[in-house]
């Protein structure tokens, strides 16, 4: 049995990698990339939540002065904006963190549009945003032949570069990007960092674990300056849900693994902040109580049903993998459950695609235990995976029973969170496990035609849906932590006979697994089939424009409710119709001059402040910088910094505890520019 010890060690370390120490706020200064030509729309543009007649468009402004920013938005059917079909005016201010979100209505169904924002406060040419590309959904009566979606999740800034996002941005036949959560990570600098990533500039802001509203805003601002994420948002609409790291690791309704109330305050307050900032920074349609579970229809071909299995109703995870039903715990509230079941039962679309944060399918890893025949040893291994639906079997099995009894065909579940690639036939219990009479080893559980229970791998009987789990964009998978022989051995043992244990198979319903690659998958839907194509990037340790590698394609025939064998040898073909990409560079409006500004203030927080302030600011190039706090009349009351700095982004903390309460201006001054923001000292 000792031959299995490396797997036990691997699982233990995988679990501990999610539990990081917490630190108090520290000051730091480090350089990161940003594009000065995008002023004042440094964070680019985004769109999301498309419907037949509308879509949400988004941007963020970084002004030189603390004032209300008035903007105009335009949507056109061409990149040159000759045929503008919708336009209007909006505004933003400090209370919104200068984010802008408009739900533009009156659009045509199934149509590609191009959009932009223009600041109307000034006439400078740099007050025009990038042009974004978006797309409405087809009408409910549309007779579609093909839909395509990129499915992504788990992008850790300190884990590596977002090359997968860049690859997806180059595609011109997608209907949308489905983001399944962990859009950001909450950890402090170095708290969840890829040890092989030597680029010191790829470092979290703020340096502390994010807790306050200002912290969450700054972390989103950092991510949205990433050029690859910016390109993804620019070229495609996104339909997104959060997972745990948008709040804190292994979150649930009443708490989180990575939240200590004794040092980090009230969990409900932190969760509410996380939701509020998510709705500020993401192109998601505003909803009552910041609800994210919703349905998006794509004609008669697909209903996309997005769930919230994380913050809305999830009760605390069970203590052990074999005690999931203690207290009859649920992963979604009764209200969401009823809505979900009704959405499935009433859907008239060919395919019902469920967007979901954590793996719905159960899988068994007891083979990796120090002793795979002892329950206590098995628990130490299996208990690392009870954050999934496996920890909520009563509700999970009720969903499968409803699908079976109501004869709901063509259900496809797409899942993030795990950082690895998986494909499953969805069944209630693929094997009987653990079975004490057989040394706790898994035993076959063949399909019973009378009860509808069980699963037969050779025929797929007992499979009522399919599930495709996606790899991470950059968050750590097994390959980041362990040797390749260990990873390959674990992959093999997941769903193949294990000679050392009498050739038992732990997961016969698992049709594909990859634990070592980063990337995404493309979901290609047609009337007669769905195909999931897994694409992996060459590296996450450096920025790369290389094309991804197509690794595997898996197919589901209509009405079969199972993954079809054999494995495909080619990816699904591109659509015949390819959309024109949005221009990669900003288009200047005719007759306007360029702006010679030298820097930008991204964030000043907290504001109001008590004993300290944190600044995040950028310099286009090397400059002499003076930062002061002045009165509203212009008198200097506290000098903060005076030095020559190179180009890049800086984060600095300053102690203002001796400053008298009142209203002030924070001023960042360079040779040719003065940036000012109102500061309230409490």
**Total domain units:** 2
**What is CATH's topology name of the largest domain?**
Purple Acid Phosphatase, chain A, domain 2
Oligomeric grouping of the chains = single chain
Helix content: 10-25%
Name the CATH superfamily assignment of the largest domain.
Answer: Alkaline phosphatase D (PhoD)
* Number of alpha- plus pi-helical segments: 10
- Averaged pLDDT: 91
Instruction: Summarize the biggest pleated sheet.
Output: 7 strands, mixed
Tell me the fraction of residues in β-strands, as a range. 25-35%
Low-pLDDT sequence parts: 1-31
Q: What general form does the structure show?
A: globular
CATH architectural grouping of the largest domain:
4-Layer Sandwich
The Rg value, from CA coordinates, equals: 26 Å
**Which CATH class of the largest domain?**
Alpha Beta
Strand order of the largest sheet: 10-9-8-22-23-24-25
How many strand units?
A: 32
Structural class determined from secondary elements: alpha+beta
End-to-end Cα distance: 64 Å
Q: Which key terms come to mind for this protein?
A:
Purple Acid Phosphatase, chain A, domain 2; alpha+beta; 682 residues; 2 domains; globular; Immunoglobulin-like; disordered N terminus; 10 helices; single chain
Helices and strands, with pairings:
Blueprint: H1 5-16, E1 45-48, E2 55-60, E3 69-76, E4 84-92, E5 99-104, E6 112-119, E7 132-135, E8 147-152, H2 163-169, E9 176-179, H3 213-224, H4 227-235, E10 238-240, E11 251-252, E12 255-256, H5 261-264, H6 267-281, E13 294-298, E14 302-306, H7 334-346, E15 351-356, H8 375-382, H9 393-405, E16 411-415, E17 421-426, E18 431-432, E19 443-444, E20 465-469, H10 484-495, E21 510-514, E22 519-525, E23 529-536, E24 549-557, E25 564-568, E26 599-605, E27 612-619, E28 623-630, E29 636-645, E30 648-655, E31 662-669, E32 674-681
Parallel strand pairs: 8-9, 9-10, 14-15, 15-16, 16-20
Antiparallel strand pairs: 1-2, 2-5, 3-4, 3-6, 6-7, 8-22, 11-12, 13-14, 17-20, 17-21, 18-19, 22-23, 23-24, 24-25, 26-27, 27-30, 28-29, 28-31, 31-32
């Amino acid at each position: 049995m000792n031959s299995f010890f490396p797997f036990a060690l691997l699982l233990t370390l995988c679990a501990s990698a999610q539990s990081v120490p917490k630190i108090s706020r520290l000051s730091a200064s480090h350089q990161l990339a940003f594009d000065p030509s995008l002023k004042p729309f440094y964070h680019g543009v985004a769109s999301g939540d498309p419907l037949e007649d509308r879509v949400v468009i988004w941007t963020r402004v970084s002004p030189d002065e603390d004032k209300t920013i008035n903007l105009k938005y335009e949507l056109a059917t061409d990149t040159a904006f000759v045929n503008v079909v919708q336009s209007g005016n909006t505004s933003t201010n400090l209370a919104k963190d200068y984010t802008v979100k408009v739900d533009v209505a009156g659009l045509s169904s199934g149509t590609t549009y191009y959009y932009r924002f223009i600041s109307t406060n000034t006439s400078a040419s740099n007050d025009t945003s990038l042009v974004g590309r978006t797309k409405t959904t087809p009408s409910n009566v549309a007779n579609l032949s093909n839909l395509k979606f990129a499915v992504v999740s788990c992008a850790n800034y300190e884990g590596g570069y977002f090359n997968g996002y860049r690859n997806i941005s180059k595609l011109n036949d997608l209907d949308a990007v489905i983001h399944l959560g962990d859009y950001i990570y909450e950890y402090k600098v170095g708290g969840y960092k890829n040890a092989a990533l030597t680029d010191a500039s790829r470092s979290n802001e703020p340096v502390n674990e994010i807790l306050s509203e200002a912290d969450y805003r700054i972390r989103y601002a950092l991510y949205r300056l990433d050029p690859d994420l910016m390109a993804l948002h620019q070229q495609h609409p996104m339909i997104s849900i959060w997972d745990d790291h948008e709040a804190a690791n292994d979150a649930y309704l009443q708490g989180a693994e990575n939240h200590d109330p004794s040092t980090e305050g009230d969990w409900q307050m932190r969760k509410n902040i996380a939701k509020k900032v998510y709705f500020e920074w993401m192109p998601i349609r505003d909803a009552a109580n910041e609800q994210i579970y919703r349905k998006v229809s794509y004609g008669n071909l697909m209903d996309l049903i997005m769930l919230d299995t994380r913050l809305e109703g999830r009760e605390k995870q069970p203590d052990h993998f074999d005690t999931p039903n203690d207290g009859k715990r649920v992963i979604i509230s009764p209200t969401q459950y009823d809505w979900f079941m009704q959405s499935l039962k009433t859907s008239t679309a060919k395919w019902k695609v469920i967007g979901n944060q954590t793996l719905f399918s159960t899988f068994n890893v007891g083979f990796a235990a120090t002793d795979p025949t002892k329950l206590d040893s098995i628990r130490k291994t299996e208990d690392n995976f009870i954050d999934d639906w496996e920890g909520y079997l009563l509700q999970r099995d009720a969903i499968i029973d409803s699908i079976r009894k109501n004869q709901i065909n063509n259900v496809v579940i797409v899942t993030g969170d795990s950082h690895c690639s998986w494909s499953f036939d969805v069944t209630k219990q693929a094997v009987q496990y653990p079975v004490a009479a057989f040394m706790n080893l898994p035993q076959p559980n063949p399909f019973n035609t009378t009860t509808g229970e069980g699963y037969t791998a050779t025929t797929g009987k007992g499979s009522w849906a399919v599930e495709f789990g996606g790899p991470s964009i950059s968050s750590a998978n097994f390959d980041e932590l362990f040797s390749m022989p260990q990873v390959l051995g674990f992959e093999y043992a997941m769903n193949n006979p294990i000679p050392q244990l009498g050739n038992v198979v732990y997961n016969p319903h698992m049709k594909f697994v990859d634990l070592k690659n980063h990337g995404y998958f493309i979901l290609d839907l047609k009337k007669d089939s769905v195909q999931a194509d897994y694409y992996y990037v060459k590296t996450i340790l450096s920025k790369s424009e290389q094309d991804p590698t197509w690794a595997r394609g898996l197919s589901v025939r209509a009405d079969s409710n199972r993954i079809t064998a054999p494995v495909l040898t080619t990816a699904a073909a591109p659509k015949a119709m390819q959309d024109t990409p949005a221009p990669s560079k900003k288009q200047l409006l005719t007759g306007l001059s360029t702006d010679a500004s030298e820097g930008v203030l991204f964030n000043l927080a907290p504001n109001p402040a008590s004993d300290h302030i944190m600044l995040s600011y950028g310099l286009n190039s090397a400059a002499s910088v003076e930062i002061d706090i002045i009165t509203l009349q212009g008198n200097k009351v506290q000098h903060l910094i005076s030095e020559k700095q190179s180009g890049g982004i800086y984060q600095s903390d300053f102690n203002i505890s001796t400053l008298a309460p009142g209203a002030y201006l924070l001023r960042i001054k360079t040779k040719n520019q003065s940036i000012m923001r109102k500061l309230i000292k409490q």
